[in-house]
Amino acid sequence: MTSALADFAQLLAPFGTDEFFARHWERQHLLLHRNDPKFYESLLTAADLEGIISHTDARYPAIRLAKGGNYFAPEAYTRNIKHGDESFLGVPDVRRISEEYRQGATIALPALHRTWPALGVLCDRMTTEFDHPVHANGYMTPGNAAGFTPHYDVHEVFVLQIAGSKRWSLYAPVIELPHRNQICTPQSYSGQVPFETVDLNAGDLLYLPRGVLHSTTTAASFSAHVTIGITVYTWVDVLKETLQQAIDTPELRKSLSPGFASREAQKPALRLGLCEALDRLRAQTDVGRLIDVFTARVRAARAPRPPPFQADVVVVTLDSILEPPPAGNYAFIEEAGETMLEFRGVRYRLSAPVASAVRALCARTQLRGAELTDQLDPESLLGLLRQLFDIGFLRLAR
Q: Of 314, 398, 309, 391, which Cα lies nearest the Cα of 358?
């Protein structure tokens, strides 16, 4: 088996990433025919998807059924299983799912990156590359069936055809680059004529900018595909930070004049007041700080993948030999007289004594906890070491 696809460049190969961003990103779709049915074999196979569905581990909403553009109610294909005084909720009824699938329903596996390691690694690395959240969904559709009716997505979409084949009909966007709050209402887009129809076979890739309307059908072959979705941050999101800063300005907290919505004579003053407020906001905005706050929020929003559970562990003591991470994996940030430790996209506020102890710890490649008792009292030091160990900042020396 080939090594798993691990980053965006490998996912696009042989198409270059520079050319992709210059010609396609947020501009136009990209179709890659590879003539290699096993291209995604190391990432996911149809047999893997069958196993995920069959073993009933993926409870609702991690498994869903859809037909005719609508999702089934969960009670139509899941059940609750009683075990003593407790119940397992949303357990898939595989027999019922199979029946609906044979009648043309599509099986969707949302957020598959959370539970399938190879997809998780790919999405994590793409999130790091893009600085936008990346997720993966799986889909299986039987032969001679229609998928979803014409609709658009509010995230960038990469379709990876895992097995079988599927026909995609592409329609002109009705809204350019929709924001994630501008959710599609498919009922509005019936009757449109596609500008292109493409057939995806195993190993192929299709990129669709958000907003491009699309619908799908299968012929004699079933279809298994994964979509890699990128939910982008936009300038709208940055501007929200500006509005958040506006709360700190007393002039902008003043009420609108009484009768502003009902009296026509108030509108000129309302327009003037809005222009003055925007000018004031522009003049008072610390752009550098705003960007710092926004990018820090983005980093903090990333949910780092937890390390795998291990049975053979020991509780950290002051005698444990510990190792900090490499210097490039964390940062100390001074802001408003406070010290924060940034690690894996999360910031931890440190008191002065704790900050001194952590800096001393990081100055060594390896040390015994008790060597820092000159920085903190033993009880406080032990609590700090265990917290740093729990978040993955420290590890036991091998």
A: 391
- Mean pLDDT, to the nearest integer, of 11-38? 97
Is 312 contained in some domain?
no
Q: Would you state the structure tokens that stand for residue 8, as one six-digit string?
A: 């965006």
Residue 1 predicted with pLDDT over 60? no
Q: Per the domain annotation, does 2 fall within a domain?
A: no
* Residue type (1 letter), 263: R
Query: Do the Cβ atoms of 232 and 153 come closer than 8 Å?
Result: no
Number of CB atoms found within 10 A of residue 271's CB: 10
Q: What's the CATH code of the domain at 18?
A: 2.60.120.650
Predicted local distance difference test score (pLDDT) of residue 288? 87
Residues 113 and 201 in one domain: yes
Query: Of 197, 230, 263, which one is at a domain's C-terminal end?
Result: 230
Instruction: Supply the range of the domain harboring residue 337.
Output: 321-396
For residue 1, being part of any structural domain is answered with: no
Q: Where are the beta strands (DSSP E) in 68-155?
A: 70-71, 78-83, 86-92, 106-109, 134-141
- C-alpha to C-alpha distance for 225 and 51, rounded to whole angstroms: 15
Q: Spell out the residues 6+ positions from residue 140 whose beta carbon is closer than 8 angstroms to its own.
A: 46, 49, 53, 101, 106, 107, 222, 223, 224
Q: How many distinct structural domains can be found in the chain?
A: 3
SS3 61: coil
β pairing state of 30-32 and 205-208: antiparallel
Q: Which residues contact 324 (CB under 8 A, 6 or more apart)?
A: 330, 361, 362, 364, 365, 393, 394
Q: Is residue 311 one of the residues assigned to a domain? A: no
Pick the last residue of a domain from 230, 255, 277: 230
Q: What is the pLDDT of residue 304?
A: 67
Written as one string, the DSSP assignment of 180-231 is TTS---GGGGTTPPPSEEEEEETT-EEEE-TT-EEEEE--SS-EEEEEEEE-
**pLDDT tens-place string over residues 56-86:** 778 999 999 999 888 999 999 999 999 999 9
Tokens standing for residue 23: 């010609």
Q: Detail the DSSP E strand segments found in 30-133.
A: 30-32, 64-67, 70-71, 78-83, 86-92, 106-109
